[in-house]
Amino acid sequence: MSDPLKKCSANDVAACCCVDVGTIIDNEECVAKFDQVVATEAEANALLKDLTQRAQNVQSEPCQIESHIEKVSDGYQLSATFTFCCGAESLIFQLGLR
């Protein structure tokens, strides 16, 4: 019987460069955070609209989005938190932003 503590360990596989997918995507990291400063409030709203659409494109269940736009010294800061139903969706969303 295998050791349950090693279930999600990168040491599970003896071959080089192989890792169990459960080591990377464990469904505990379902939240993606986004912060960016832009020049105008209109840009911040447009950015939020784009991010919301991107989240909706990967969600299987409704993504919970909390956001606020705040005036800062060099523009407007958009801060948003996207809570997905699973870690894979959060990862796909974040990779799509790169």
TrEMBL record:
List the NCBIfam families hit by this protein, alphabetically: DUF406 family protein
Name under which the protein is recorded: DUF406 family protein
This protein's superkingdom? Bacteria
Give the record's family classification.
Belongs to the UPF0381 family.
Gene Ontology terms, cellular component aspect? Answer: cytosol
UniProt-listed Pfam families: DUF406
Which ranges of the sequence are coiled-coil? none
Source species? Candidatus Schmidhempelia bombi str. Bimp
Species classification: Bacteria, Pseudomonadati, Pseudomonadota, Gammaproteobacteria, Orbales
Q: Which InterPro entries match?
A: DUF406 (IPR005272), UPF0234-like_C (IPR035571)
